Amino acid sequence: MDAPARPKSYEVPSPASLRxxxxxxxxxxxxxxxxxxxxxxxxxxxxxxxxxxxxxxxxLSKGAAAYVAAITDPMAWASVKLTLLVAAIAVPMxxxxxxxAAWAIAKFQxxxxxxxxxxxxxxxxxxxxxxxxxxxxLFGAHGWFGPYLQNHDIRVVFAVPGIVLATIxxxxxxxxxxxxxxxxxxxxxxxxxxxxxxxxxxxxxxHVTLPNIRWGLLYGVLLxxxxxxxxxxxxxxxxxxxRGLTNTMPLHVExxxxxxxxxxxxxxxxLLALLALATLAGKSLLEWRQPELRRATLRDxxxxxxx
Length: 307
Hints:
The chain is mainly α and 307 residues long. The chain has 14 helices and no strands. The longest helix is centred in the N-terminal third of the chain and has 45 residues, at 15-59. It starts with 14 loop residues before the first helix and ends in an 8-residue tail after the last helix. Mean pLDDT is 83; it is low at 296-307.
């Protein structure tokens, strides 16, 4: 008969080996986190920082004197002034529309609410070039309102009003899209409480609603301003490319580039980049001046409305 099998003996692991086993998963998580961070930084460097460096390098490729001459050219300054003028008109109008639309959608129930939301999303579904062509068909010389405008000596297309209208169309969703989720998350309790205490409509808006939405409003204004200054497609159709009159900065960059004046084109493009960096600096300054708003936003995930 076979001898009975002996029971297996198990070695008790030492405390050092137990600690090593505990460190192994943490080590894997740490390396995975570092890998993800490296991928994100590499992506930002390749698609954001590197193109920005190329723009400034090409702008200064012929020296500082050529750079200054390019950005002080009268045509370049005219494009800068027009870009800032269009943004100064389009952004406040979109702020008014965005706040009103977001307030109506988030605070009230009414017929046509879904249609209003769809119309707000329309510029994201329609090509900017198509939007520009629509304005040509409406306000051009052979458009629906063209004869009337010509008889009254009113110019819309190939003039500043057409550029403003095209810019407003392509930028009006940004403020509303940022404010709608913020107002929906906050509900109507604060406004109803203020009304029950005798506050009027404007008092409720200025002292209750506006302080609660200012963070989302800031992001909406930043996005709207950036798109207004950088819009190309719709503005290109309605502007007519008249130098010194209807050329915005992106259109002026295109003309210079098509004329093989690369240094001047990149010089004007660097001004656009500087305007974008100035917008980000303004956002950071506002965050620094209002630390309690930043802390409240970090505590309440519902208020995080960054894109």
